[in-house]
Amino acid sequence: YYMHIGLYAYRSNVLEKITLLPQSPLEKAESLEQNRWIENGYKIRCAETVWESIGIDTPEDLDKAISNYERFI
Prior knowledge:
This protein is an all-alpha fold. 45% of the residues lie in helices and 0% in strands. It has one domain (12-70).
């Protein structure tokens, strides 16, 4: 199975534009804002990796990630 690492980088002018786009029915149905971008002609680049990641969804997750990262520096 593939896993998803969601890392997004934007130019400021593109970020301003995509935040003004209305939600699409597909985005609402799948709860994926990326569908809005794709349906409006924006490209999303993907890459395959063997690196295993952890989810960062809460402040506690971020603390854990920082702690893990600091072991490598």
